[in-house]
Write a structure and sequence with these properties.
Elements lengths: L1 H11 L5 H18 L5 H12 L6 E11 L2 E10 L2 E9 L2 H13 L4 E9 L8 E8 L5 E8 L2 H18 L15
Helix pairs in contact: 4-5
Length: 184
């Protein structure tokens, strides 16, 4: 398990939280057992991308708007859900709580965020941030989501979406439903 975390950090700058290390190590262990071979850092990264950043994910981040003040946060997140445009708006004590509230209110997604971590992946003018969210569905299933972006807030929202996609794939989150946004 330490080998996976070490490679992800030294090769790709991803400092995985401990429980995410354990979750992802199981994926790598399955691959190595199935192939009977060691896995290269490049193959490990491809497995990480497939698990946490799939190109064909059913729920995809498009954009967001957020406002925070002393009373909390309000976010509006534009999503692509099963190929259809959806908007999620929520309020909470912070942007992640607001987004989770909006997912429940607008799409019927129930989940609780149990852990959150973030860090810079790179520095300078083109710095990127990574965010990690552990979310739990009402049935007790927990999955990690990962997001990266130039904006730590966008990375955090993408991490929640990654967790939703992974919980959905596990059958723990029902299909997302909401009225379609009229196109202007």
């Amino acid at each position: 398990k330490g080998g996976v975390a070490y490679i992800m950090e030294t090769e790709y700058g991803m400092v995985l939280p401990r429980r995410l290390q354990i979750e992802f190590s199981k994926t790598i262990q399955t691959i190595t057992e199935d192939t009977g071979t060691e896995i290269s850092p490049n193959e490990m990264w491809k497995a990480f991308e497939a698990a946490y950043f799939p190109a064909d994910a059913p729920v995809q981040f498009l954009s967001h708007e957020a406002a925070t003040d002393k009373s909390g946060a309000k976010v509006t997140v534009q999503l692509l859900v099963d190929g259809r445009h959806r908007a999620v708006t929520g309020e909470g004590n912070g942007p992640i709580a607001a987004f989770v509230h909006g997912l429940n209110k607008d799409l019927g997604v129930e989940l609780d965020v149990h852990d959150y971590a973030e860090h810079a992946v790179s520095s300078g003018t083109d710095a990127r941030a990574a965010a990690y969210v552990e979310a739990q569905a009402p049935d007790g299933t927990a999955r990690w989501g990962v997001g990266t972006d130039e904006s730590i807030l966008a990375a955090s929202l993408k991490a929640v979406i990654s967790a939703v996609n992974r919980l959905r794939a596990a059958g723990s989150v029902r299909r997302l439903e909401a009225p379609e946004i009229p196109q202007s």
